[in-house]
Amino acid sequence: MNEVISVVSNEIPAALPEDQIYNTIGDEGFTRLIAAFYRRVPTDDILGPLYPQQDFAGAEERLRLFLIQRFGGPTTYSNQRGHPRLRMRHAPFPVDERARNRWIQLMEQALQEANLPPQALPALRKYFLDTATFMINHSPNEPNTRLNQRG
């Protein structure tokens, strides 16, 4: 008599390369992720004040389109806005280590809420950590005049 033995594996599938993330999670996955992130930002005591209060919806759309493009999807972001120039676009905002850490914390919460496939998470987390660190443009000892210079 042949027995069929079912084996359940708890192994996580191999991490996806960055350019395959979009093919796996699509617009829907990025929409869930970025919506979950921006639900947290307006009331956050560190990040909320960095955003123009009337533009949370615009910021959400721009981040979603940027990440879709960055991870292998359509180039809508660049078609609409040109080269991303992340450091230049964030220069008016005082991004210090506290802001970086909070951004990572809220994005990690959003990743958990969005319930994306586990094989997509390593590349997303690495990109978020590396890029958030790269965006630091302000030390705690500098006067905080950047927001006052915006028009």
Put simply, the count of helices is 6
Instruction: Look at the structure and give the mean pLDDT.
Output: 86
Contiguous uncertain segments of 5+ residues: 4-8
Choose one word for the global shape. Answer: globular
Strand content: under 5%
Largest sheet: none
The multimeric state of the shown protein is: single chain
CATH class descriptor: Mainly Alpha
Q: Give the N-terminus to C-terminus distance in angstroms.
A: 79 Å
CATH architectural grouping: Orthogonal Bundle
**CATH evolutionary superfamily:** Globins
Which secondary structure elements does this structure contain, and how are they paired or packed?
Layout: H1 21-40, H2 56-70, H3 76-81, H4 86-90, H5 97-114, H6 121-134
Helix pairs in contact: 1-2, 1-5, 5-6
What does this molecule look like?
The structure is a single chain. With 151 residues, the chain is mainly α. The protein has one domain (18-137): Orthogonal Bundle (Globin-like). 52% of the residues lie in helices and 0% in strands. The protein contains 6 helices and no strands. It has helices at residues 21-40, 56-70, 76-81, 86-90, 97-114, 121-134. Helix 1 runs antiparallel to helix 2 (56-70), helix 1 (21-40) packs across helix 5 (97-114) and helix 5 (97-114) packs antiparallel against helix 6 (121-134). Residues 4-8 have low confidence and may be disordered.
